[in-house]
Amino acid sequence: MPAVPCAPSPARRTSEVNARGHRWADEAITDPARKHGLALDLARLDELHEVFYERALEGDVACGALVTKIIDRRCVMFGLHTLQQAVLQDVKQVDSIINEPTEATSRMATPER
Predict the structure, then answer these.
(1) What pTM value is reported for the model?
(2) Where are the domains positioned within the chain?
(3) Helix-, strand-, coil-residue percentages of the chain, each rounded to 5
């Protein structure tokens, strides 16, 4: 009976597929293609911003939220987005400073003997 060849392991197949995908991306996604895609997406965001910004100024809360998301997306695309974890840490620091009793408020809360 002839020997049956073993099939490659799933991990090996996955790494081969990933390598092929990376090689294809390196050849197909050129710098001009990236710039064109970025410019196209920014133009689309500008169009949306223009429409919904006017409605937001008129008091439409949903449009205001959408405008905020559009601004946030634009910041992400330009690499200006702050990591959420860093923002939360700053908020916690500010909160602890605000809620920390000062010497003056401690004296007011403690009756003199």
Answers:
(1) 0.51
(2) 12-82
(3) 75, 0, 25
